Structure formats: structure tokens, C-alpha cells
Amino acid sequence: VQLLESGGGLVQAGGSLRVSCAASGRTFSRYAMGWFRQAPGKEREFVATISWNGGKTYYSDSVKGRFTISRDNAKNMLYLQMDKLKPEDTALYYCAKPSLGYWGQGTQVTVSS
Predict the structure, then answer these.
(1) In this structure, what is the dihedral angle of CA atoms 69, 2, 24, 64, given to the nearest 10 degrees?
(2) What are the pLDDT digits (tens) for 5-40?
């Protein structure tokens, strides 16, 4: 599975942004998938995960209530809707299946204050 993120950009604090992840391969729909992020000078951290059929989701405390993870298995797409963005959300956002070593190249999200 190859992963390609898109949709990052610059947004003001309080604004919204949706990042997407296009997956290649026919096995995408079998896997739970996740979003991770890494800010400059910090370690990569977990953001959200979603089960293979979208029935279960889980979020880090820092984004709970503001971000929504979703997927469209028919299109091999993973999404992260980010609302009420804060400057501390600034990071490179990755979609991934870490247990299998699948990582995208990341998309930059910058939130200005």
C-alpha cells in the first residue's frame, strides 16, 4: 500500500482544513488506519485512528472534539477534518498503518495566530 497525503496549507486559528490520503492497492479496506503528526523539534505523535469499516474511531486528547477521521473504502481514501484549529496544531501530518510500515510523505498544516 502506498499513501499520498494532500490538502495541507496555511489557515488562521479557529479555522478549518481537511487533509486527505489516497491509498493505492486493493488491501486498504482491510486495515485500520491512522493519522499522525510531527511538529518541528518534537517527536511524531498519534492524532486519530479509524477501524477498517469506519465503525470505530479514536482520538488523542489534544484533538478530541475538534478533529474527525473518516474513510471511503470505495475510493481508497482517508480523511481528517480539522476544525477550531490552534497554532499548536501546526505540524506535518501523515496517514499511516504503522504496524505494517506504511507511511505517507506528509502534508504540512500551518495555523497562524
Answers:
(1) 0
(2) 999 999 999 999 999 999 998 788 899 999 999 999
